[in-house]
Write a structure and sequence with these properties.
The complex is a heterodimer of chains A (122) and B (161). With 122 residues, chain A is an alpha/beta fold. Chain A has one domain: Rossmann fold (3-Layer(aba) Sandwich), CATH 3.40.50.2300. Chain A contains five helices and five strands, in the order E-H-E-H-E-H-E-H-E-H. Chain A has a five-stranded parallel β-sheet with strand order 2-1-3-4-5, sandwiched between helices. In chain A, helix 3 links the parallel strand 3 and strand 4. Chain A starts with a strand and ends in a 5-residue tail after the last helix. In chain B, a hairpin with a 3-residue loop joins strand 2 and strand 3. Chain B has a single domain, classed as CheC-like (Chemotaxis protein chec). In chain B, helix 1 crosses helix 3 and helix 2 crosses helix 3. Helix content of chain B is 30%, strand content 29%. Chain B has 161 residues and is of the alpha+beta class. Classes of the chains: A alpha/beta (122), B alpha+beta (161). At the A-B interface, helix 1 of A face helix 1 and helix 3 of B.
């Protein structure tokens, strides 16, 4: 499967990829983007199976990227990986079309549960 | 504080819990962080700040000694102990750490509110600007990590402003 990881922090993108590897998902093809605008263009071009995105980013936030994708008719499976895990944020994420929200800091187990829930094989 | 005005601040126990979660998850820390008395300001070489605005307004500030800041970057990037992080690594790692801590603190406070992008600086961040709203420290946590000082503080607008 192809997975797009979107986060303005290179450190966090590396942590996400490392954690996916620890959770048994390291064999998937992973592509990175630095912000929502870059992420939107990449998702439209690459047609991945899953997007893992931060919420708060320069250029375009993750929630705006998700809304733009849905407005463009792109149904890609989308999950947030963000420092803000309140009920309010989870509700906004779901209402906008996200399948899950992983709150930072996260464990490989949490990642595994989220990816399993959307059918990504380990 | 005027009558009827309610201020909110995170509990010290919550700050400890958030920091320990971050340290164990991102920095491979095993033992709980040890709270200590505040260090002199000169101990800190790096600052990372993030603001919350809206239903709750605050400045979340982390301060690190040089060695602690370098250790944060090394561990978050999976670098060896003999590898030196460059400036971009430090800005990125410290910024992301305060982003995660700030986001977790925000989730405990009244909403809705917005989290800013992080700011990282060498040196200290002033919370008092002459002629402007002054921030007062509401809660703080000083810890010792790898025998180095790290500080987390939450400042809110002074009611006297």
């Amino acid at each position: 499967m192809k997975i797009v990881v979107v986060d303005d922090s290179r450190v966090m993108r590396q942590i996400v990829i490392r954690t996916m590897r620890q959770a048994g998902y390291g064999h998937h093809d992973i592509v990175e983007a630095e912000n929502g605008k870059e992420g939107f263009d990449l998702v439209q071009a690459e047609q991945p199976d899953l997007v893992l995105s931060d919420w708060n980013m320069p250029e375009m936030t993750g929630i705006d990227m998700l809304c733009a994708l849905r407005a463009a008719g792109n149904p890609v499976t989308f999950g947030f990986v963000t420092s803000e895990g309140s009920e309010e944020m989870r509700t906004r994420a779901t209402q906008s079309g996200a399948s899950f929200l992983i709150a930072k800091p996260f464990t490989p187990e949490l990642f595994g549960e989220a990816l399993t829930s959307v059918g990504v094989p380990a | 504080m005027s009558i009827g005005e309610i201020t909110h601040e995170p509990a010290l126990a919550d700050l400890e819990s958030i920091m320990n979660d971050c340290w164990s998850t991102f920095l491979s820390n095993i033992d709980p962080l040890e709270p200590v008395a505040p260090s002199d300001g000169s101990a800190y070489a790096w600052s990372a700040a993030i603001t919350v605005s809206g239903g709750w307004q605050a400045l979340v500030l982390m301060q690190f000694s040089r060695a602690a800041a370098h250790a944060v970057a090394q561990r978050m990037l999976g670098m060896g102990a003999d590898e030196e992080p460059v400036l971009d690594d430090l800005n990125d790692a410290l910024g992301e750490l305060v982003n995660v801590i700030g986001g977790n603190v925000k989730s405990l406070m009244p909403g809705p509110s917005q989290l800013s992008l992080p700011l990282v600086a060498q040196g200290t961040v002033s919370t008092s600007l002459p002629g402007r709203t002054e921030l007062v420290e509401a809660t703080s946590l000083d810890v010792r990590w790898l025998d180095e000082p790290v500080r987390l503080s939450i400042s809110v607008a002074s009611s006297g402003a």
